[in-house]
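Still learning. Show one?

>
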Amino acid sequence: PTPSVAVDTTDLETLAAQAQEYLHGDMVRRNRKLQGELVHIKGFVDGVANGLEDSEKRLEILFEEGEYFTWDWEKTVYADYSGDLRFVENDEVEVWGTLGGIEQDFMDNPHPIIDVVHVELLSTDPSVPVQCIESRNRAATASSPAELQEAAVSATAEDILRYFDDCSGAIVRLEGEVSSTEYTEEMEILDVS
């Protein structure tokens, strides 16, 4: 669908002023009427998958609280985007895009689809890529375990995955728990103690 408003993707302030915020239920019930509208949501990534086309990715975003202050996974919105940004579970994101149709999951729960115009990652440490590149360079010339430990950068598993290209080859001291095999399958674990 084409947006029903002229979308200026170069100016975030204008984009934010044009976008409407709707509840999940409104985007489902009034979907035919709202298709093509510029919408804005903020929430947490529940999953990331490859989209319908090779260059496209799909975020599953939780953006409404359910009962007892938990996020309601039945009220997930699918946000299709392309680009170099890498997202992982629990990332906080802000999305602007055009509302598309509805897709049902395996439990027949309806999920609105947003064709992303702009997405921002709200929860990240922007210094991690630079630290990883510096660590990789120091590690390449290290001649002892002590020098390898000095070259280590502290980061979460999520940040390492998000900045995988920059952190590949870096010595990383993981912060927190690695609770998913998704993380350990993509990382080479090296014990320098």
About this structure: The mean pLDDT is 77.
